[in-house]
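Board notes (copied after class):
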Amino acid sequence: MNYEEFRFVLHFKIQNLNAIEGRITLSRLIADAYPYLENYLHHLWKEPKRLLFIFDDLNKLHRSFIFSDNERSSDPRHSCTGPESNCLVVDILRCLLQGEFLKGCSVLITVGLWKQEMLRHVTVDSTFQVMGFTSEKVKEYFCCYLRHGQYRKYILQLIEENEILRNMCSSPLFCVTLASFLESHRPQKEETTMPVINHTQLLFDYITLLLGTCGYDDNTTQKSLIAFGELAEHGIRRNTLFFSLEAGASVDLSTCPPNFTSAFLIQVTDKESCGAVYGFSNSVVRDFLAAFANILNAPISRLKGLLDETFTDPDGRFRIFSLFLVGLSARNAIDRLKLELGSERSEVTSCISEWLTKSVKRRLVNMDGKIAQRTFLHTLYCLHEFGDNEIMKEVLTPITTIKLNQLVLTSPDRAVLSRTLKYSEMIEEMDLSSCLAQPEEMKQLEQLLHKCVILRLNQNNLKDSGVKPLFNILKERDCKIQTLELRSNHLTDNCLHPLFSALSINRSVTQLNLSNSSQDEKQANQFTHERLQYHVENYAQLKEIRWLRYESIREDTASNTLILTTD
């Protein structure tokens, strides 16, 4: 459709049409919606081909639509002969769609898949199914929605790096949900940090909004969600989005309203299968529905067993499912379930609280290896979703050594680290070697690093700009850092003055490692002997220094040979 051919595009909201009681003319409808056109209406009727009417979400219209020929001709009171005919709203819409007046005008409607049947008697030129946003359209949407420059940059980065958001933002309705959340958390200042998203709350908002477009009641909705959830869990265990009715034989989809089925599932053609094959529209929705159904219906003992089974699954297929299972057990989520669906499951919160405080602590003793470190990070996400600060403190306080040197941390990872570990008063050792992809990522961890006694930031290619936040940390009164390692971070002479200035104020650091690792020559620190010697001598006036040298990788630098020890 070429929109440039239209002179007037007239968009009507279905909720406004629902509010109209009795009869009305099309002219009055347009004048009420567009008052500036009231004295121009007679010109509109002269060129119907230049008019485009838009009726969005027609399935929300309260009055029933019937387009059969018998219906139309059986009662002349339902006939609408022109813009000045006094008619019911449904008759104006029906006659516009069927071309009974203003012949040549165009009508664009959107309708849910489950309501397409009501249009079977209407001749249409084109039908399109909206499949969702591309990544470029998602970026365009949020660039238009968020005017705050720095905040917009954070959000676009967050969507790109966050698996759940990146996956879900293909849905325009989810983008609306996320935008609403971001609006309520809009920062007051230009300089702000990356927001920490509660994924469970977001998906709950999205599902509620989606169900609202379908129309639902407590009883029907709860039964349908449990049915879909059983299929979803079946799909997670088989690591697939698709299933046949035979594969999910224990679930009878015929008992679910067709609007619900269309909201969550898509039907696909399978040449090898004689029966219907369905697929979940999105893996995140599948995982959320599986968790939702268990929270609604599973015995308490099964919830604990599910978490034990899925929390550390080797291939990660249950990771998002277990995240939602914990998040939906939170007090605020259980309260929403009662409000939205009348579900009484208050005992679930205490059950998961007990599981978090006992089982999780037992699993976090060892952080050697990538799997153990991923489990720790997943734990932090789950604790954040659960949202109980006391539980968070009880679980994390005993953990004194944190190693994440086997991972590359994303922006959401760093945000959840800062949000959860703020409850730890002191961390004996924090190893963040080789896990920061960009120099500016240090700033996101600024509120966390000052409480570490041993801080390892080796091989991160921080460069001079990346270590600037660290200098502010060293100047803080409550800085606990005693051993600081900055090996192989592509540092140069330009960072020496601010570094030693910070060290002259600092009262905690006793060992500083600025050497290089033999395998990271490209990231080697590149200090010159003269500048380094100058700063060390000036620093030595304030504190006693022992300067140890080792064999240099490159003859023209001293950066890989320096260890400073203060007494």
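Comment from the instructor: The chain is about 45% helix and 10% strand. The first helix runs from residue 14 to 18.
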